[in-house]
């Protein structure tokens, strides 16, 4: 499979790049600064310097690929537009250049309150956090998802909880709902779940909740 990874220098993106290469896929890593990509050189790795937030910059990187994985995310509490801008960019680029490709977009579970959550999380914790410290980030996740949902692409949205740099271990997933008690997930396990979703056509057109 030929896979393009957006946000390839980020914590999740680098794990996806490594996992995909280890599985034998050809990976195109879209980066702004190649020096920040701490992944060993490999004949199956192509590095493309481009602005992932500009659809025209992505045209060559998504054309002819089987899948695109968008791991773009905020780098701080003040960065509250990158998810939706990235989603808009990749959706526009794929719609013109490669509408048949699979698309995986990473958002989060914090903005979603559904029966998968326990009562405390659903009715107390998330409303409190979502109206204060992470209000802008949660709104950006929601905007990004609406852009993806409204597209005609073969999408899957990954909704992890708080991400950590921990080691891989057993995790749980749920289709179209959050994972009860799943408050954390390592970036390594998110990368694993992304690769699983790419290989499973039953995830197309669905969201995937994750957590331990």
Automatic annotation (TrEMBL):
**For the NAD(P)-binding domain, which residue ranges apply?**
7-201
Recorded hits in InterPro entries, A to Z, give: NAD(P)-bd_dom (IPR016040), NAD(P)-bd_dom_sf (IPR036291), Polyketide_Oxido-like (IPR051606)
One Pfam family in the UniProt entry: NAD_binding_10
Name-wise, this protein is Putative NADH-flavin reductase
Can you provide one Gene Ontology molecular function annotated for this UniProt record? biliverdin reductase [NAD(P)H] activity
């Amino acid at each position: 499979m030929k896979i393009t990874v957006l946000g390839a220098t980020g914590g999740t993106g680098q794990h996806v790049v490594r996992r995909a290469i280890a599985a034998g896929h050809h990976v195109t890593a879209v980066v702004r600064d190649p020096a920040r990509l701490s992944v060993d050189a490999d004949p199956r790795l192509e590095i493309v310097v481009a602005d992932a937030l500009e659809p025209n910059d992505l045209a060559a990187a998504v054309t002819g690929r089987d899948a695109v994985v968008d791991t773009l995310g905020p780098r701080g509490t003040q960065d509250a537009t990158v998810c939706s801008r990235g989603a808009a960019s990749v959706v526009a680029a794929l719609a013109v250049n490669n509408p048949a490709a699979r698309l995986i977009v990473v958002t989060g579970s914090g903005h979603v309150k559904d029966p998968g959550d326990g009562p405390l999380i659903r009715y107390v914790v998330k409303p409190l956090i979502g109206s204060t410290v992470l209000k802008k980030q949660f709104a950006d996740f929601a905007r990004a998802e609406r852009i993806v949902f409204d597209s005609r692409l073969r999408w899957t949205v990954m909704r992890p909880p708080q991400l950590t740099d921990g080691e891989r271990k057993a995790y749980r997933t749920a289709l179209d709902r959050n994972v009860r008690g799943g408050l954390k997930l390592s970036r390594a396990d998110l990368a694993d779940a992304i690769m699983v979703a790419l290989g499973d056509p039953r995830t197309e057109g669905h969201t995937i909740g994750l957590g331990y």
